[in-house]
Specification:
- The complex is a heterodimer.
- Chain A is mainly alpha-helical.
- Chain A has one domain.
- Chain A has 20 helices and two strands.
- A two-stranded antiparallel ribbon of chain A has the order 1-2.
- Chain A starts with a helix and ends in a 7-residue tail after the last helix.
- The mean pLDDT of chain A is 88.
- In chain B, helix 6 runs antiparallel to helix 7, helix 12 runs antiparallel to helix 13 and helix 16 runs antiparallel to helix 18.
- Chain B has 20 helices and two strands.
- In chain B, strand 1 and strand 2 form a beta hairpin.
- Classes of the chains: A mainly alpha, B mainly alpha.
- The interface between A and B is medium-sized, with 31 and 34 residues.
């Protein structure tokens, strides 16, 4: 192995370098220059984002523990895009006086989780997978408890770490059984010796449950609302979009490349879990008044929709899942971006505070409406295409009843998304949120989201490109 | 660039133009100019279409164009029109034109209002020119969603409730539709090969009958909800009565026709075997719609509710006639769509204008309006007479054709439902004449009404164009029915020989 081979780990290496650079700058910069850390970090990450799109070599390292392909690079780039938007959106909040001393920690911890996710997606065996997963999770707890003097935030941190420990325990138990029955932890070897005997089925179910916690599928979702509500807005948006996206990516990769021999089993499981996840997520979202909690439950329901793509087990399924997550990044970060901008300005995050928002802040309201419509799957915004392709993949497997349940759920979700639209556009308010202008970075972040929401659907080349890279159970 | 694309591009440009205006004056003139161009385009399309047919072109669809969009799923932006869609486009252009002039005094958030209104119309235009189920569905939902804001922000009465109910019920319909469309897509290549969303290709592929039985109800009910199919019509009275004038016009006049159009273009044309097997269920439901809507209108006191229930009845008649599945009745159905579209738009425009003067819509509180606002009153009478089917106006042509067509079926079941449905004509006469009697004739009940001004110039434009349409179809129905008849050919020939599949019990 020479340096040249090592370069196929480009994404991870660059992110590590970036984290180190930020730490060093933080050490060197006196209080006078601290305000430069954030723009420099954003600028460097943007370069990293661009480098990610350069053509790359496929291959594997460390005896197959790490492997990469164009599909995996695509997934990493999707995560990078979301990460970049989160960086932009958290800028205004980090600049505040109270966060002055610890702002570089925020990015370093955030970068650490992203490195973990990248390793997780690139893993070629269950050990690397587990390491990546933990690296992606543990700093998250620190981030959730970032505003440690607030009880809610501290509570969110401790909840997240405990739940992660529990789910990791379950996952590891499953992995140990896989090792016990197949004698290997390498994906390629597990795949060939996985026959579906009872102990292996049990192992798989433990694995599934562990992933269920990470993706917050019902019935493993109970931590989601509390953590999302307690954590700072930007951490919440990161958790609900990037963390979830990464977990879905590795989940679909493992299902499609390792557990292919028991696809009948996981398809049945996913059918059942998808139905309850969509329904319960929606039913709970109906009654939420706090927008962060509201988006948390809506993101549970969205996870249920994602399962419709996974269940197909085909190239179409994977393409629609990746495409949906890309769209979901823009839509959900758009919604969270508006919530964050308003929270930073006014400290308000309840639905009734948004009454009459259109009359004072028309642009924010319009973006919020577009994002919510995209989440609900209303044309002409990108969410419509994303949802329709997910439904198409489920229908390609013959799951028409599942599609029916899903579209009816989409209609229910439209109800609560419209409640927010109603608050902003229709409801009257004697004390609406004052008109304000958020700072440049926030606006750039929101602008990127808007562009993504509007353009991704019509510009079909994106989907086609994802489709050419995707694979199904039976290969590409 | 293709000619038909203009029908989507002109509204888009109009919306852009409105964005650059500052106030109501600018917004309404931008909309008026844009929609006038649209009306001229629609007129040109009718002439081009008739000209092409006269020259002997016999393709099913004319002016087609086909652009690949998502190649891996074979989703295409395919457009084209036949006589039926040309007629619907002309109807839409007239109604949206009249609608813009009917909302001339929309003070509150005027730019947003016109933008939403025109966005809605662009969805409708897009729907009628689409030949690809995916784009058709996209435009369909695009037409439904602005409705929520239009009713919720500018509506009256229990507007928030009505807006939510309407949106959710119609989106529930499109949920069913999603399943139907996906089913059509995955069964569109029974012998292998490329799957397709293209309507004409699916029609040639002939879907297996077992699949049809499963997907036909989804598709038909999905579109039927928008066409106010009993018992899923409940959004319609609430929605129409809460909506602002132009929105009621457009919704009852055009949007409900999307339902009828989709029912036969997608559900019946692509799944003819299932349609003929299951028609009897829907015939019963639509017969109930027809009679129930008419009875509902009798009891109402609010002008808008009367007209909304009357729309349920008339749109029920559209679906009823389509399900009769013969050339005459289906021809009548299409004429009824156009006729009802113009007529109900006229009604809602007049109700809006009367309301803006009297500030009430309860008929008992008004009276003798003929003496103070003669122009509006006379037009109201014309609309009423068209609605109850007076010869010489469009309603007569439509209903006569429908019932003649329906009576061509010799079996007991069809005879009985036809007779039941014809009773609606009498009931319609009752409620129309009752309203005219109370509202327009008799003494003036309120002194305040003595000083009401008659129609302003923009109100005259709005109503006269609709009256011209109604009288035009009534006096010279042949060109319209010729245009439709040719295009009905392929649909009727698919359905021919399949009809009369009624369970023995009912016969």
């Amino acid at each position: 192995m020479n340096l040249n081979d090592l370069m196929i780990m480009r994404h991870e290496l660059l992110l590590t370098l970036l984290a180190v650079v930020i730490l060093v700058i933080d050490l060197g910069a006196g209080s006078k220059y601290r305000s430069f850390i954030l723009p420099v970090a954003i600028g460097l990450f943007f370069i990293n984002l661009l480098i990610g799109f350069l053509p790359a070599r496929e291959g594997s390292l460390f005896g197959g523990m790490y492997h990469t392909s164009n599909l995996i690079i695509l997934m990493k780039n999707v995560l990078n895009i979301g990460f970049f938007i989160v960086m932009l959106q958290s800028f205004a909040w980090l600049k505040k006086e109270e966060n002055h001393l610890k702002m570089s920690e925020f990015y370093v911890l955030l970068l650490a989780t992203l490195i973990g996710m990248n390793f997780m997606i690139s893993s070629g065996d269950f050990l690397m997978f587990y390491l990546g997963l933990e690296l992606a999770t543990i700093p998250m707890a620190a981030l959730a408890a970032y505003v440690h003097h607030q009880t809610r935030s501290a509570e969110a941190g401790i909840k997240l770490i405990l739940i992660s420990a529990l789910s990791s325990g379950i996952l590891l138990f499953g992995l140990s059984m896989i090792y016990g029955t197949t004698g290997s932890i390498f994906f390629s070897e597990v795949k060939t010796s996985f026959t579906g005997e009872p102990l292996q089925v049990l192992a798989f179910i433990f694995f599934f449950a562990g992933m269920g916690f990470k993706i917050s599928l019902v019935p493993f979702h109970l931590w989601t609302a509390d953590v999302y509500e307690g954590a700072p807005v930007n951490v919440t948006s990161y958790l609900s979009v990037i963390s979830k996206g990464a977990a879905v990516f590795i989940f679909i990769l493992v299902l499609y490349t390792v557990f292919t021999s028991i696809d009948f089993l996981w398809k049945d499981l996913i059918y059942f879990i998808a139905v309850i996840t969509m329904t319960i997520g929606n039913l709970f979202a109906l009654r939420q008044k706090n927008l962060k909690r509201f988006l948390a439950f809506s993101s549970i329901a969205q996870a249920g929709f994602i399962l419709l793509g996974i269940i197909a087990g085909s190239k179409l399924g994977m393409a629609s899942v990746i495409y949906f997550i890309l769209v979901y990044i823009f839509s959900n970060l758009g919604a969270f971006g508006v919530v964050a901008a308003i929270y930073n300005q006014t400290g308000k995050e309840n639905m009734e505070d948004y009454n009459g928002l259109y009359h004072t802040n028309p642009r924010l309201s319009l973006l919020m409406m577009l994002s919510l419509f995209s989440l609900a799957g209303i044309p002409p915004v990108a969410g419509f295409f994303g949802k329709f392709f997910l439904f198409t993949s489920a229908a390609s497997g013959g799951y028409y009843w599942l599609v029916l349940i899903a579209v009816l759920n989409a209609t229910i979700s439209l109800y609560y998304y419209l409640l927010v639209v109603k608050a902003m556009f229709i409801n009257k308010n004697d004390h609406p949120i004052e008109p304000f202008r958020s700072d440049v970075t926030t606006r750039i972040g929101l602008l990127i989201c808007t562009a993504g929401i509007v353009a991704l659907g019509f510009y079909s080349a994106v989907y086609e490109w994802i489709n050419t890279l995707s694979i199904g159970i039976n290969g590409p | 660039m293709h000619f038909l694309n203009l029908f989507v591009i002109v509204p888009a440009l109009t919306i852009l133009a409105i964005l650059f205006t500052r106030d109501l004056r600018g917004a309404r003139w931008a909309s008026a100019v844009g929609m006038s161009i649209q009306l001229i385009l629609a007129g040109a399309l009718v002439f081009m279409y008739l000209g092409a047919r006269k020259a002997g072109v016999t393709d099913e669809m004319l002016f087609t164009s086909d652009t690949s969009w998502f190649p891996s799923l074979n989703i295409r932006y395919a457009i084209g029109v036949d006589g039926i869609s040309v007629a619907m486009i002309a109807l839409t252009a007239i109604v949206i034109f009249a609608g813009v002039f009917a909302s001339w005094e929309m003070e509150f958030l005027s730019r947003e209002f016109f933008i939403s209104l025109i966005l809605l119309s662009s969805g409708v235009f897009g729907f009628f020119i689409s030949l690809d189920l995916f784009t058709m569905f996209l435009f369909y939902e695009l037409a439904v969603i602005p409705m929520y804001l239009l009713i919720g922000i500018w509506g009256s009465g229990p507007k928030e409730y009505s807006a939510m109910k309407l949106t959710l019920m119609l989106m529930g319909g499109s949920a069913l539709l999603t399943v139907g469309i996906l089913g059509l897509y995955f069964y569109s290549a029974p012998e292998g090969g490329q799957r397709t969303f293209h309507i004409l290709e699916i029609a040639r592929a002939s879907i297996p009958v077992t699949a049809q039985r499963f997907f036909f109800p989804f598709t038909f009910i999905g579109f039927g909800i928008l066409g106010a199919l009993f018992p899923l019509h409940t959004w319609s009275p609430d929605g129409h009565s809460s909506a602002p004038t132009a929105v009621s016009m457009l919704h009852a006049g055009v949007l409900m026709k999307l339902g009828g159009y989709g029912c036969f273009r997608v559900a019946m044309f692509l799944m003819p075997e299932a349609a003929s097997e299951l028609a009897w269920i829907f015939i019963i439901l639509t017969t109930i719609s027809v009679v129930y809507g008419a009875f509902g209108a009798i009891w109402q006191k609010d002008l808008k509710y009367i007209n909304a229930y009357s729309s349920v009845s008339h749109c029920g008649l559209v679906l009823f006639a389509l399900l009769m599945m013969n050339q005459t009745a289906m021809n009548g159905a299409i004429i009824q769509m156009i006729s009802h579209g113009l007529m109900t738009a006229l009604f809602f425009a007049l109700i809006g204008m009367i309301y803006s003067r009297t500030h009430t819509r309860i008929i008992d509180e008004m009276g003798g309006l003929m003496k103070v606002i003669p122009f509006l009153s006379v037009v109201y009478v014309i609309a009423g007479l068209a609605s109850l089917g007076l010869p010489g106006l469009s309603g007569f042509v439509a209903e006569a054709t429908i019932f003649v067509g329906a009576f061509q079926h010799a079996d007991t079941f069809h005879r009985v439902v036809t007779i039941v449905a014809t009773t609606s004509i009498v009931i319609t006469a009752v409620y129309i004449l009752r309203v005219i009697g109370i509202l327009l004739l008799g003494p003036i009940k309120n002194d305040h009404y003595e000083h009401l001004g008659d129609a302003r110039w923009y109100e005259r434009i709005s109503t006269i164009i609709l009256v011209i349409g109604i009288a035009g179809i009534g006096l010279a129905p042949l060109w319209l029915s010729d245009m439709i008849n040719f295009s009905l050919g392929p649909i009727v020939s698919k359905l021919a020989g399949l009809v009369n599949d009624v369970p023995l019990v009912l016969n």
